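Our preliminary data section would be incomplete without showing what the modeling component actually yields. Below, a chain of 172 amino acids is followed by its predicted structure, encoded as tokens that our downstream tools consume directly.
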Amino acid sequence: MDRAQKEKVVEELGQIFESSGVVVVSRYEGLTVAEMQNLRARARGAEASVRVAKNRLAKIALEGQPCASIGEYLTGMTVLTFSEDPVAAAKVAEDFAKDNSKFEILGGAMGENALDRAGVQAVSKMPSREELIASIVGCIGAPASNIAGAIGAPASNIASILSTIEERGEAA
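Predicted structure:
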């Protein structure tokens, strides 16, 4: 790789570290190509990405970044899992680690906050952006449907009472 290519990679990695909601650093030594493809497919499905980069270039890209502390995890065969959603990449990495003992999560960063192994696990258990939006919409929609039901109920009650009175009047 020549100098221009290295500079381009450093710039791309810098963008990843700057714009991602979460970055997870994992060791992938011993994974097959098929297993790595599986990881990439899972990440795509969750709107996350996977990137293997030279540790030295990643450390250069981390200089001056709020998440520079994750540089300590960049030793050996490491892979970055990242996403704009602050939870998606952590969920993908945790799920993949459960199925693959050769995939070891080292730590990561969520914005300026450094995460150790337990921190990544805790983030992965948080609800995703889509789940939060769905629950908020559900909370907003529930009172409206309750109000509509309450408003409609008296009218239907009055109608059934009138119907009962009418039936009794005809029977008498």
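The mean pLDDT is 84. The chain is about 60% helix and 15% strand. Preliminary results of this kind motivate Aim 1 of the renewal.
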